[in-house]
Amino acid sequence: MLDFALYHLFLALGVLLALFLIAQVLRERRPPAASLAWLLFIVTLPYIAIPLYLTIGIRKIKFNNKSALYSRPTHSDQTSTIPDLDLLLDSYGIPEASENNQVIFHTDGEEARTALWDTLDSALKQLDIAIFILADDLLGKQVCEKLKLKAQSGVQVRLLLDGVGSFLLPRHRVRELQEHGVQVLWFIPVLHRPFKGRTNLRNHRKLVLADGQRLWTGGRNLAQEYFDSIGAQGQPWLDLSFDLQGPGVIQYQELFEEDWRFAGGQTPTPGTLPPPISAGKSRTRLLPSGPDMPNDPLQALLLAACFEAQEKIVAVTPYFIPDDPIMEGLCLAARRGISVTLILPEKSNHLLPDIARNRYLRELTTSGATIVLLPQIMCHAKALVVDQRLGLCGSANLDLRSLYLNFEAMTLFYQQDDILWLTHWMKNLASRGIEHKPNTPGTIGLLLEGVVVMLSFQL
Fold first, then answer.
1. Which of 92, 168, 212, 388 has the fewest CB atoms within 10 Å distance of its CB?
2. What kind of fold does domain 98-283 have according to CATH?
3. How far apart are CA 441 and CA 14, in angstroms?
4. Which superfamily does CATH assign the domain made up of 297-458 to?
5. What is the pLDDT of residues 190-200, one digit of tens each?
């Protein structure tokens, strides 16, 4: 009798928990395919789905110790080239644009590495790095050696590693850094309390900050393939990064402090570092996004840009799995005569996103957009240009993970020289590719695409 009662008690608790999680899935904003996949999973296999959802299914988290970085409405001036987009970001509390910055884009891996070494070497008081992948290869070892030397010279060095992205970094390498005085924290380690629901939330940002005065950022991880050729590949990955100096660096320093505190670290006393000085004529704006924000400002900006565009939209991304609103926005832009161009690698380093993107590419070309595929090279760059009025570059891919799950950092560029640089860079990139004319696959191919798209929220 006792066993029978316990069985029904656990059954009732299981049903209540399943109903609670179903309500949670419906309440959280996510693509319909992802919501449907979770609902079917919870209903059909609750004993597997419920623990899995509690481990990787939660999309938004509460972070009560946030500073004023993006917790208050801002009010941008109306001299912006796209005031409506600035007003949109203002409403989300995104830090307003800053003037008098110097931006230097890196045309290739060699320039990026030289700029990285210059940034690391320039630090005299404080060196802060947040990175998704720190590899145990030649470049990764060189970075570690520079960090150890800086720490030994009296510079405060803080290294924030993503728990999944840098999971393969040997722990003895981390211990060596710590023994030399480098402070190392893991952003949501893999081996943590799994039912906190954070396992699937990754810090995809790439930030290197020297003394709060100089920033190295973009899409590159700290691994050899982002800078140099490796083995049979014959050439490095194609990526995009840049230096930033000037008042805009303050926003990125505050963003690092938020992430460091989230990972359990103590932040320095405010005012430790002098404010950055004016360094150029570029106007930039940091656009952070992530699970710690109540809304999804990156997704909102991309969607609004589709309707704000008057002449052209050019996007470069390694993976293309947009949500339905952005997909509809791009198609409608193409149908109303806007030149929409999407530049992708012919084959990326992940098979499943390549399968999932096919149905979106067919719909885009049907709407009149141009798809350019880059053969025999992995393009890992993430950039967008809208008309000649706005440029965008940073860490976020045009996929559901970057839009809804990852902590990302994108930079908006308003100055004409910066936008022209991105425009010419994209034009040269497109000249190396071939225009894609997708074909409709057979029944098996369509079924495979559908299954992968349903799972794409977790890719």
1. 168
2. Endonuclease; Chain A (3.30.870)
3. 41
4. Endonuclease Chain A (3.30.870.10)
5. 766 555 556 77
